[in-house]
Amino acid sequence: MTTVDRVSSLRLPRQPLLRHLPVALVAGVVLYEVTLRLSSYNDYQVGEIASYVVALVGLSLLTGSNGQISLGHGAFMAVGAYTMALLMNHTQGNFLLELAAATGVAAAAGLVIGLPATRLKGPYLAGMTLLFALAVPSIADKWPNTFGGDQGLTTTVPTAPGSLTAEQWLAQIQILAALIVMVLVANLLWSRYGRAFRAVRDDEIAASLAGIHIVRTKVLAFTISAGCAGLGGALLALSTGVVNTGEFPLTLSIQLLAAMVLGGTGTLIGMVWGGILLVYLPQWSTSLSNDFNLGSGANAYLATIIFGVVLIVAMLAAPNGIQGGLRWLWGHRPRPGGATPDVPSEVSKEDQSNATERKGRNDAKTSVEV
Amino acid sequence: MSLFLDYTLDGIANGMVYATLALALVLIYRATRIINFAQGAAGMLTTFIAFSLLTRGTGYWWAFVLVLIIGFALGAVTERVLIRPLHGKSELNPVIVTIGLLVVFEGLAGAIYGNASRGFPAAFSQRGLKVGSTTIAFSHFDLFILIAVVALMAGTLVLFRYTALGLRMRASAFHREIARLLGVRVGILLTLGWGLAGIAGSLAGLLVAPTSAFGPYYMDLVLVYGFTAAVIGGLESPVGALVGGLISGLCISYVGGYLGSGLEPLGALALLMVALMARPEGIFARPAARRV
Amino acid sequence: MLEVRDLSVSYGAVRALRSVSFEAQAGAVTAVLGANGAGKSTLLRTISGLVKPLDGSVHFDGDPLLGRHVESIARLGVAHVPEGRGVIEELTVEENLRLATLWCLHKNERQSAIAEILELFPRLQPFRRRNASTLSGGERQMLVLGRALISRPRLLLLDEPSLGLAPRVTAQLMALLQEQTESKDITVVLVEQNARSALSVSHHAVILNLGQVVVSDDATAVAADDALRHHYLGF
Predict the structure, then answer these.
(1) Rg of the Cα trace of chain B?
(2) Where do runs of H (alpha helix) occur along chain A?
(3) Contact status, residue B137 vs residue B6, Cβ threshold 8 Å
(4) Which strands, in side-by-side order, build the sheet including C14-24?
(5) What is the pLDDT of residues A291-306, one digit of tens each?
(6) Distance CA B280, CA A124 (A)
(7) A368 in contact with C at a CB cutoff of 8 Å?
(8) Which residues make Cβ contacts (< 8 Å) with residue A308, sequence separation at least 6?
(9) CB-CB: which of B106, B262, B276 is closest to A128?
(10) What tens digit of pLDDT does each residue of A254-301 get?
């Protein structure tokens, strides 16, 4: 092998974990420093964004990579939040265990819903998850003594170590959770499970002929996605300090969908855009409605309207979202048929050349005689 | 026993409303293969307009008819402007558009009318009718609901089965391409289908308003109950919408009555899941194999 | 008369038609023949407006057809019976026929027009009020042909009517087609895989190969040319 060969065969390690971890570590260190320097209000917001990212990553996996559309994501967040709040109020447990329980219970709920969901296509699945999103709050309303009624349950943030403020500590916990979840899900999407998710999304019959177990794959995606939502909901509940049904209306699920679409369906980094949108759009629309003197009632609703409009316009104009748009600028055109790219942000050379070959078969690069 | 009768009558009255919304969903699904998740919210918005008119002193029936017309227009415009451009692309896009529209409508209603609970007047007395010496849980208003919905269903069936327009609409729904080759202006018919669905949605909104907590979200549950009804009956059958509505209405009423009020959404979820697992194509599924 | 000039169509990377030109006379059947994938169906779909071409022109009796909506082309008197026949199974036989009359016949005339077609295809009479899904292949072909004829078309585009039919039924259909064409002065473009039966009723034949016109000649000349028949038509 000549020197040229040796150099040209150098590439980033093929192991996804070895590739994602360094990036996450660098990001983690940078963000840690950032939290120390921000005002406490900004720390609070950054933490909120991170919490939403956790939930959005799950939704991106479910809808983007596995093709199942869910309008109940907010309800799974509620399940996680209520679980953690109940444990906090009734037990003296370890904080980490409480987060894990929130994730686990939400994931279990995902399993319960995910099983019948495997038989449903797009709109039917949307309809069922919509009903689920409305049914979950009704449980809390039905037993106000357990679930705290209108006022809900309170949460407490674990005490910050050393010289950190409470906001810094909370933000760091939430950011750490977001980074861990992103690395884990990224690895998952790169593994054979991720390939199975995408294969099932693209063509169930072909996937099952290739030996992939359809039901197991779809249920796995649903369960993991619900677990992410539960964790995100629990983390968010730490920020807000309270868990009640008012925090998890149907519109939350739809806003999550809008944020995911705008961030880039199927992407992971794009979910950061989505989180930013979820945190800043309501603020921005409040100041907008103040500028126009629309009255205090309009504030809350203006944000909702804008999310809805965003969703509509995104579907009409650019179904691939911000991250997809950026990727398009970088030259990775989305696959034909309106399907969105879901390849994690780093693409190895081998996959790149495969993609070019696939592209060539599909568009006008080569002329084909029939 | 009289409790059972009460729940049954209640279930029938509610079921009729769910059937109306189910009919709207069926009309749209037959024509364009889309589930219009915004249908309930559209009905809500037009009912709020009725409310405005009523508080300004408009006569009830004038407001009623006007709002049905507005519902028609809203449905037609939605199809032409938002749904038509998406024809031919991914199946999910129009569904997501209707979801976005749902929150836009709810946001608009909330922004314009605010969140305070208000009462919507009923056209007829809501006291129970007297049968012999007993009062049953069926009021004049419930009778009105029954008549209005049956009239709508009958009108729809007559339209489809006996008119040239109905023939064109059915052909466009069953086989769009062939209909076009036979000179049928399919585009206008799709718009018309959405308009008719809008009428049904507005009617549902008007019928539910008096007995609900009249706010921007009051049609959310009606939408999903209507969806359940449409799934049970078969998303392509107007008759199925009626049957599905009755079945859903009765089941939900019994769940609320015997298992406790507040559990209806869970009961409906269970009912929907059973229906989707057992017979996803519905009771009145189309006999011919569906074209891919 | 139908005039097709330099028609080019592609589906993505695939060129389905390359600069196709030919003419079809009124009162005559023009056969379009060739192997599978030669572009025959695409040709008809482009004329009826279902497919938009890259280039070229199509004129019928002087009217340009390209760029119009499918339904307006149909309302010019163009009847296209596509691949797969296109029977609307959920409608009855009578409703299928009635559908085609809605744009061109007055309410009073529709019933008699339907009766006329049922006389032409007596096999369909007992199925009049039954769903079209109950019809056999041959009966379906009669229905769609009747549906095309009921609107008194000036241009009739037929895509593989003999597909899946027994030879006797095919022969009957072709005879009827020839008779109708001449008596009603229709311009007929007949796409067929079964070249032999098509040539027997046609006046002119066009052979497509890989999207290009390779032969455009009298039908009798084409039928007589052994080398041509072997090479392009397989018999």
Answers:
(1) 19
(2) 3-8, 16-37, 40-59, 73-90, 95-117, 122-142, 144-147, 166-190, 192-202, 204-209, 214-240, 250-264, 270-291, 296-317, 321-330, 349-362
(3) yes
(4) C14-24, C2-11, C55-60, C63-64
(5) 776 666 667 788 889 8
(6) 9
(7) yes
(8) A254, A258, B100, B101, B102, B103, B104, B105, B107
(9) B276
(10) 999 999 988 888 888 899 999 999 999 888 888 877 777 666 666 778
Residue with tokens 């904080």: A95
**DSSP letter (8 states) at residue B83:** I
Of B49, B63, B74, which Cα lies nearest the Cα of B200?
A: B74
Helix residue ranges per DSSP H, chain C:
40-47, 70-74, 93-101, 107-120, 137-149, 167-184, 195-201, 219-224, 226-228
Q: Count CA atoms closer than 13 A to A342's CA, side-chain side.
A: 31
A235: left (phi over 0), alpha (psi -120 to 50) or beta: alpha
0.90 surpassed by pTM: no
Burial letters B64-89, b for 16+ CB under 10 A, else e: bebbbebbbebbbebbbebbeebeee
CA distance B10 to A362: 58
Binding partners of B (≥3 Cβ pairs within 8 A):
A, C
Instruction: Tell me the shortest Cα–Cα distance from B269 to chain C, in angstroms.
Output: 32
Record: contact C14-A368, CB cut-off 8 A:
yes
Query: Could you tell me the pLDDT band of residue B291, with boundaries at 50, 70 and 90?
Result: very low
Q: Which residues of B touch C82 (CB under 8 A)?
A: 177-178, 181
What is the mean pLDDT of the segment spanning C117-127? Answer: 92
Confidence of residue B289 (pLDDT cuts 50, 70, 90): very low
- The one-letter amino acid code at C199 reads L
Which residues in B lie closer than 8 A to residue C89 (C-beta atoms)?
Answer: 174, 288
Mind spelling out the 3-state secondary structure of A102-153? HHHHHHHHHHHHHHHHCCCCHHHHHHHHHHHHHHHHHHHHHCHHHHCCCCCE
**Binning pLDDT at 50, 70 and 90, where does residue B60 land?**
confident
The CA distance from B42 to B35, in Å, is 14
Measured CA to CA, the distance from residue A348 to residue B257 in angstroms comes to 60
